[in-house]
Amino acid sequence: MAPLSEQPDWLYLLRDYHETFGTGSSGGSDAIRSHRRRVREALNRVVQADPPILGRQPADKPVTAHLGRALDLAADGPLATMAATLRRLTGQFTWEWGYERVPRTLAQRYAYCELAGPNGPVHAERIVLGLVLLAPGTTYPQHSHTEIEESYVSLAGAWSENDAAVYAPGSLIFNKPQQAHRITVGERAPCLLAYAWLGPPARLAAPGMTFGR
User: Fold this and answer.
1) Domains of the chain
2) Is the pLDDT score of 55 beyond 90?
């Protein structure tokens, strides 16, 4: 298992995340500003530790048929550099559902991919970075994360959380621990979100994901 420093594209990807959380406005929110700082600090610790790149078995899900289109759209957006790095690494991604029971319809329209965290490929204990891919017209049911604070950064597609607003590529949405949220996606394009989780190592290793009622 080669270390991070010997895998340039994985190292570039962490730097892309760091830049994404280091630039742009926090919208005047102290909570978001603090979250962004903690994500950057956790990323710095990962890079300094130079962890091994774990050899996870690549795996697709039905929704990954939309990944090429999502990356095409992201290439014209504000996170184009990250999109290009992701495209070079797609053959190494392990796409999952993460729930013990996934509704049949959602199983065709959703998957996530952990990029850094307790389950790798980049090993980290105090942060999880990953991607969520949603097909056009998808509703991702209400859910929450115990002890985990979460942010989504949009790479491609138009989407809404809790029917509050429409978010475009480049937007960052922050969810506090236990905050219930529901995502809907526009009808014309897939949605690709980069996410960051911060929380206790034991919880990040086994988040116990469940849907709300």
Assistant:
1) 4-205 (2.60.120.10)
2) no
